[in-house]
Amino acid sequence: MVSRTLCLATALVFFGACSRHLNKYSYTGSVNTSGYQADTLAAPYETKSAKNFSKVIGWKGGETPVAPAGFTVTKYADGFDHPRWLYIADNGDVFVAESNTELKGIMKVGSKISRKIKTQHYGESANRITRLRDADHDGIPEERGLFLQGLNQPFGMLILDNSFYVGNTDGIVKYNYDGKASSITSGGSQIIALPPKGQHWTKNIITNSKKDKIYIAIGSSTNMADKGLDKEVRRANIIEINPDGSGERIYASGLRNPVGMDWAPGTETLWAAVNERDELGDELVPDYLTSVKEGGFYGWPFSYYGQHKDPRMSDHPADSLVQKAIEPDVALGSHTASLGLAFYNKEAFPEKYRNGAFVAQHGSWNRSVISGYKVVFVPFKDGKPSGKPEDFLTGFVSTFRKAKYMAARFALPLPRMGHC
In the prediction, which pLDDT does 22 show? Predict the structure, then answer.
């Protein structure tokens, strides 16, 4: 028996879908969020663009997601204010970035009545990082406290030597770090400014094996460069910098919203989980897991899933770029909002999971049938995918009255899957 502790955000999302129109053939696609092929993708607008928003309720006592036989799921911590991302330090400390989409003025007033905004909890952001410490590794943190506050929509976190880096929405901030300290009270310095806010405001960060570079995932400002290409400068990219913020260059581009990043074990290959575009129908466009080629272009906004031209960009054909667009490695299903990514480089799990990739799917609003809301596993061999994505952590969607009422619970697994 393998016991595994996962950190869960204690939230339950309820989907009131009574009398909702379901696009023909969409239900199968919702269940099978793998097997997409570049030469058999659905046509744009083959189905209507759906709006499928949710209503939040709470967990019932004792409820947990469902893992494969031999695994046990337990709650690690709760009571957070929109836990967005997790980072595990070498000493085992778990850092939780608590942040949210911020609204002001008329948008904040509208949040009181908008179902979409209520669904996604838009409004105010805690703008802090909480530290958890489980010194005896029994799955129950003995210490919990405020580590950093007064941030600006923090997301990615990284420790290099004696520095703690935070990916705020408007830039990367560097702080002095002491692994024995319970908090940081001194001010930090912004080492690089980044384009803030927008539809995709998160800034994830990761280093390489040499720890001499930092990679920053920056999503697009809009779905399809809706406000003009000039508003997307330095966006929809993964950029590379030195630890002091110098040496900025675009490592890869055309990635609509890259969020999770990790290195395939035993290789120097960076991988990313990417959210693709909306409003082309239920079956377009598949989110994906892909190796990130240095200097590579992945299509957004001119094409998708390789060289499939997006009809909405007919006024900006960019044929030379489209011809260079790289087809991603693994399709993860359309509108699954695949965000978290972690390769398993430990030995407690059965052999099939070793060196494979876990992807956390938040779930999206743009499909007539609920999609995502689970953690999937992609097997790897010799640093490359060796099989289709398969469900690993499910039970986030509950079905009542023949799927007319549905609920989805969501969680984020620890990025490094614990200490085993």
Answer: 47
Q: Can you give the residue range of the structural domain that contains 354?
A: 17-47+76-390
Residues 188 and 211: beta-carbon distance below 8 Å: no
Please identify every stretch of the chain with a pLDDT value under 50, giving residue numbers as ranges. 1-22, 24-32, 399-420
The model's pLDDT over 172-223, given as tens digits with 9 standing for 90+, comes to 999 999 999 999 999 999 999 999 999 999 999 999 999 999 999 999 999 9
Burial of 62 (0-12, 13-18, 19+ CB in 10 A): exposed
- In DSSP terms, 167 is beta-bridged to 172
Extract the tokens encoding 27: 């239900």
3-state secondary structure of 99: coil
CA angle 70, 287, 404 (to 5 degrees): 70
pTM for this structure? 0.88
* CATH number of the CATH domain containing 313: 2.120.10.30
Q: Residue 335 has what pLDDT?
A: 93
Tell me, yes or no, whether 99 lies in a domain.
yes
Give the torsion through C-alpha atoms of 28, 30, 33, 37, to 10 deg.
Answer: 60
Within 10 angstroms of residue 354's Cβ, the number of other Cβ atoms is: 17
Q: Which pLDDT belongs to residue 7? A: 38
Candidates 357, 302, 369, 350; CA nearest to 332 is: 357
φ, ψ for residue 286, nearest 5 deg: -60, 130
Distance of CA 229 to the CA centre of its chain: 24
Buried b (16+ CB within 10 A) or exposed e, 172-185: bbbbeeeeeeeebe
Residue 207, judged by CB atoms within 10 A of its CB (0-12, 13-18, 19+), counts as: middle
Domains in the chain: how many in total?
1
Residue with tokens 């969607």: 397
Cα distance between residue 125 and residue 101, in whole Å: 7
Dist CA 341 CA 329 (whole Å): 14
